[in-house]
Amino acid sequence: MQAEVLIVGGGLGGVAAALAALRAGRSVVLTEEYDWLGGQLTSQAVPPDEHSWVEQFGVTASYRRLRNGIRDYYRAYYPLTDRARQATTLNPGAGHVSRLCHEPQVAVAVLEAMLAPYRGAGRLRLLQPYLPVGADTDGDRVTGVTLAHRDNGEQVHVVAPYVLDATETGELLPLTGTEYVTGFESCGETGEPSAPDEAQPTNMQAFSVCFAVDHVDGDHTIDRPARYDFWRAYQPPFWGDRMLSFRSPNPRTLEISERSFTPNPDDDPWLVMADQRLSPGDGNLWTFRRIAARRNFLPGSYDSDICLVNWPMIDYFEQPLIDAPDPAHHIAAARELSLSVLYWLQTEAPRADGGTGFPGLRLRGDVTGTGGISTGGDVTHSGLAQAPYIRESRRIRAEYTVVEQDLSLAVRGDKGAVSYADAVGVGMYRIDLHPSTGGDNYVDVASCPFEIPLGALIPRRVENLLPAGKNIGTTHITNGSYRLHPVEWNVGEVAGLLADFCLARRVTPRAVRYTPGLLAEFQNRLADEGVELRWPDIAGY
């Protein structure tokens, strides 16, 4: 196959990159390993983690179209109450983590609709489910990528003048010989206050396999997982209790805190304040990442709320996933951890009435696209999310690497984050690192609203490969801020527009950054496309 732009990986960054290049009139080949496009928003089943001003500013225009499309889909097809239907800022799940918690398949439908005109016109070809297995290079350029069908191994070779790596773990970087880094950099290299004295390349953030549950009458207990006894007794030294408990460190203070769990609390969805400036929202695990609040729908439509489980106890940090000899083994272990958490919830978790276990919890594989509603332990496939939720990728050795002191509120104070001359977008999230494979506890640092520098999207050597996701030039620490949904989308969109810009002017991405006239022209193009480059005067958290 041939295209002007090849995008490997159909997560949020990959889809945003494809839409940007397609809007510019380019031919695109987009690939995706899993059955759903959308990555962390869909196949990984993670409701969008967004900043406090998302309804007013701080995201790209196309990301806002995605959010509006999700709400419009609910209004068009779901039995909403009149009050919910009329709400401008409808939050279907009334979850505390985000102002827009929703079922993942709705996002799939909207993303597919956004891409549909280009597929009909023949300018977008989607290879799904395919993953990269090889690459060809000529000096400092990537000349082609070989992709294999996930299930039958059939191979396709694609050539394109620009190749974008939008995979969840930066899979093209080792295949193309592009220089990259993993894990912790050293304080000596980055100067970061939270970095260790020596680099720790195998010390990476936990990944998680999420799942959805509701709570209805009957006994829906799954089969006891084979390694349940191991996970039931597992207690990290910093956890404060067994991992399978409602006690765990508070990410911001590291004090041991106990969370509550109350299925279907019958709360008023209109009283939910989803604002992470005020609270992380994880006090009651049921409402924390709830994706369907039954009181938003007409009586009788939903027997129960639907709760998305992405909680501390499902974090897998036994071994790193990236560059592991057998990553499939670790994914399988993480899946069994998640099933063990569910089994513990169904059989042993303490209840407020003094009893134990919530057998009414029902695994909703239909919500995650991995099976039907489970009954009595008969679960089609596993019922978990299709893909693991990856927090940390391989990261390019970039022309510019974002470091902690660029955005830390403790370092920058009222000066705000560093403003980059080559800014190509904005984002905001605390530096939020989950426990890691080196035995580290949470690292959670208040941040200033930050910018995305173009230099972080340009490899130091390779000329025509661009990162389009979490694989940009951040450190292990700043990745904690740059890894969330709207920033990944912004990065992908800029990568797609940059590929078009360079093709049209016959220049390299490096030349765009270092040539003032080209940089100004490109930034004007981004502004015309609705990409915000600067923040108003607001404070971090």
UniProtKB/TrEMBL annotation:
- Name the Pfam families on file: FAD_oxidored
Could you give a single Gene Ontology term from the biological process aspect?
A: NAD+ biosynthetic process
What InterPro entries does this protein map onto?
A: FAD/NAD-bd_sf (IPR036188), NadB (IPR005288)
SUPFAM superfamilies from the entry?
Answer: FAD/NAD(P)-binding domain
GO molecular-function term, one example from the UniProt record: L-aspartate oxidase activity
Q: What is this protein called?
A: FAD dependent oxidoreductase
**Organism for this UniProt entry:** Micromonospora taraxaci
